[in-house]
Each structure stands twice: as structure tokens, then as C-alpha cells.
Amino acid sequence: MLEDMSRFLINVDGLNVVIRKVCKKDLDKIKNLIDSCFSNWHAYYAKRGLKNHEVYVAEVCNDVVGFIEFKVVNIGIDVGHIYYMCVRRDFRGRGIGRRLVEYCENVFKSRDVSAIIATTQEYNIPVINLFKKLGYLIVDWYTAYRILKNIGANIEDEYDLMWKIYDYDDLVLLKVLKQPS
Ligand SMILES: CC(C)(COP(=O)(O)OP(=O)(O)OC[C@H]1O[C@@H](n2cnc3c(N)ncnc32)[C@H](O)[C@@H]1OP(=O)(O)O)[C@@H](O)C(=O)NCCC(=O)NCCS
After folding, report:
1. pLDDT over threshold 50, residue 151
2. Residue of minimum CA distance from atom 40 in ligand 1
3. Which percentage of the chain shows pLDDT scores above 90?
4. pTM (2 decimals)?
5. Which atom of ligand 1 is nearest to the CA of 86?
6. 175 vs 97, 113, 159, 162, 172, CA distance in Å?
């Protein structure tokens, strides 16, 4: 049932999951989750992302079991950028990650973005499969640059795109929502 854009209650695999905006009391739990999921390098950036991104959490029985970080970046067109996300190990494989991404997509759609971009490493099969299933193209940075340029992005090349999005992983996960009018 959709309550408003900041809180969403769903039943996922028999679990009542609330997806909602992060609040201050969640931060320690999210940081612990980050430490248990990511290498030091990624943990540093994921924690930094908490400060300069919008963050939504997935909560089961008042416990945070996942989060997603995102923001809208203007590169001549508005692009929704999904940054770090994670689901607690004992809750993986039950559809929570997919619901977090879908929730994020709805926020982006409500803000009329032209495309959604995320990145990952070639070995991260769960992420690649998740985004493929949701209709994302899995491409290299040059291809992402070409596609975004074709829909009106003001970017010089793939390095400019990386710099403006501020994300540098190997593979780009890209979904175009709007063609130029
Ligand atoms: C990526 C991640 C968030 C997925 O969360 P999840 O709740 O387990 O994902 P879901 O249950 O919603 O799965 C959705 C789809 O993703 C794919 N997927 C999920 N886990 C998978 C796995 N272990 N192997 C292969 N595909 C997988 C499947 O296509 C799945 O659809 P299906 O169940 O219908 O086959 C989770 O694995 C995670 O937290 N990983 C560690 C952190 C990370 O790598 N984050 C991404 C980089 S920022």
C-alpha cells in the first residue's frame, strides 16, 4: 500500500517490509551494515554517501535490514544516480534489494528524470542480475556516454561522465526513461 513517497509498506516473501526515508537513529545500524558488506575502500565511500545522498532503508520488525543511496544529478538532463545499496546477508534473496531499487525508480520518475544510472564491478553477479531483471542495459562507460549524449546530456566524453556522476566502477547499469522531445 502506497502511503506517500516517504514510506511504503509491502509484503515481500511473507515478510512485512517498510521502505522509508532514513532518520538519525538508523545511522549506526547502517554503518554496521556497511562494515559487514563492503571492503574498507567501498565502506569509506558508502559512509560518505550517507551525508550527500538521499537514503532509504528497508525495515523488518523495526530493524534496518537494507538501504539504498541515490541522488539526481544534472548533466544537461536530469539523471538519477543509484550509489551504494546493501541488504543484510540473512535477508538476501527474498526480493528486498529489488524492492529498494524499484522504490528508488519511483522517486526518480516522480522527479521526471531522463535516465537512471548505477555502476558495479564485473564480478558482482547479484547486482548485475538484479538490474538486468529490471530492464537496465549493462554497458561500458563509453557506451553509457554515447547513449546519454544522444538523449541530450551535456558531457564531453566517458571520463567527463564519470567525473560528473562521481562514480568509477567497471560496469554501468543504465535505463533510459525519456527520449528528447
Ligand atoms: C545486491 C543485493 C543488494 C541484492 O539484494 P537481495 O535482496 O538479495 O536481492 P533480491 O532478492 O531482490 O534479488 C533480485 C534479483 O537479483 C538477482 N540476485 C540476487 N541475489 C543473487 C545471487 N546471489 N546470485 C545471482 N543473482 C542474484 C536475481 O536476479 C534476483 O531475482 P530472482 O530472485 O527473481 O532470481 C545484495 O546481494 C547485497 O547486499 N550485496 C552486497 C552489497 C553489494 O554488492 N551492493 C551493491 C554494490 S553498491
Report:
1. yes
2. 86
3. 91
4. 0.95
5. 39
6. 17, 11, 19, 16, 10
Residue 56, CA atoms < 13 Å, CB-side half-sphere? 27
Counting the structural domains of the chain, the total is 1
Q: CATH no. for residue 55?
A: 3.40.630.30
Domain that holds residue 142: 2-176
Domain membership of residue 181 (yes or no) is no
Tell me, yes or no, whether 49 lies in a domain: yes
pLDDT in tens, 26-78: 999 999 999 999 999 999 999 999 999 999 999 999 999 999 999 999 999 99
Are 169 and 119 spatial neighbours (Cβ–Cβ below 8 Å)? yes
Distance set, CA 90 to CA 25, 36, 56, 96 (Å): 22, 12, 19, 11
Atom 7 of ligand 1, residue of closest alpha carbon: 97
| Nearest atom of ligand 1 to the alpha carbon of 124 | 44
Residue 63 lies in a domain: yes
pLDDT per position as a tens digit, 126-149: 999 999 999 999 999 999 999 999
| CA atoms within a 13 Å half-sphere pointing along the CA-CB vector of 134 | 24
Residue 153 covered by a domain: yes
pLDDT for position 4 = 53
